[in-house]
Amino acid sequence: MAVATFAIGTGEFALMAVLPDMARTLGVSVPVAGHVISAYALGVVVGAPLITIMGAGLSRRRLLLALQVLFIMGNAASVLAPGYRSLVYARFMTGLPHGAFYGVAALIMAAMADPARRGRAVAGVFVGLTVAHVVGVPLTTWGGQVLGWRAMYGVITLMGVVALGLLARNVPEMAAGPASSPLRELGVLKRGPLWFTLATGAIGFGGMFCIGSYMTGVLLTVTHVPAGVVPLAQSLWGVGMVAGNIAGSRLVDASPVRAIAVILAGSTLMSCLFALCAGNMVAILLVISLMGGIIGLLPALQARLMDVAADAQVLAAALNHSAVNIANAFGAWLGGAVIAAGYGMQSVGWAAACLSATGLAVFGLGILVQRSGLRRLPA
């Protein structure tokens, strides 16, 4: 599972660093080339619920393998794409299995583990994603800069093939529930706690992406660090993600609700410190390493969705990643908006704090509503 998510995480984020080279070779501007990234995110948002519903009757093992094959095909198509438009389609295709894969993988890992260690099992799925930020993204970025972005996607395709072989060999057969069906999966959408949890992720996670999208700009124009420090900051962010995934999994095992509240409160605090410490290199690097730990919110939200989804576990788990990609898009947009409004590059920290605090408020409201007995939205 970790090898597969390592490949997925590397493929999702490595493009950002080679975007100028891709724009040049395709004969488009950098902003236009950025639509390639948006196409992947759109594929995640669309594919997570659509593929999950279509595959509701399949065994979880077969569905997981089919999703991995689609990931390989999408990356291979990216290598062979003759132009900009075909590359956009290829990245959209590659994004389609993303959310469903993470959701199904998390359910398989949780089912294989002791209930008392469910959080650590789910976090195991995201180990590859966090390590990708420390190792995979820097290495493929370097390779892409030397050999070109097509070679980068070629390596990611090969990683996907290796992961497919490991999944086929090691993942046990796990049938879908006897009553699993598209209509039953869709039934989870009537549950109020589900929507509150998804909204928590879509808003609260935006704080991390708000800062992550403009971190390099803050370091170069506000902190005034040498350009060589930027890769160090990216690595510290990745190390923080690894640590946050591990720590978050233990919080989840104790209480998913408490884990979400603690991580969002910490995200709010760290975002404020990011704005306040932007002028000091040592302080900002420390804050950046701590900000990466917010990734622990991902397994916490995943576990919470498992608790509130009843018999529609697969769709609920997949929708978590649709929510995260909405957070990615919205966080980046809000950060750009406050900068464009003239508040300064470091203002992304204050914007991120607002998103994290709002996500915490939404989650708290959801808990109050659930405890009041209003467990379902009107049909």
Automatic annotation (TrEMBL):
Localisation: Cell membrane
Membrane disposition: Multi-pass membrane protein
InterPro entries: MFS, MFS_dom, MFS_Efflux_Transporters, MFS_trans_sf
Boundaries of every Major facilitator superfamily (MFS) profile domain copy: 1-371
Entry keywords, A to Z: Cell membrane, Membrane, Transmembrane, Transmembrane helix
Membrane spanning residue stretches: 32-51, 63-82, 88-109, 121-139, 151-171, 192-215, 227-247, 259-276, 282-301, 322-343, 349-369
Location, primary (coarse class): membrane
Single GO term (MF): transmembrane transporter activity
One GO CC annotation: plasma membrane
Name under which the protein is recorded: MFS transporter
Lineage, uppermost ranks: Bacteria, Pseudomonadati, Pseudomonadota, Alphaproteobacteria, Acetobacterales
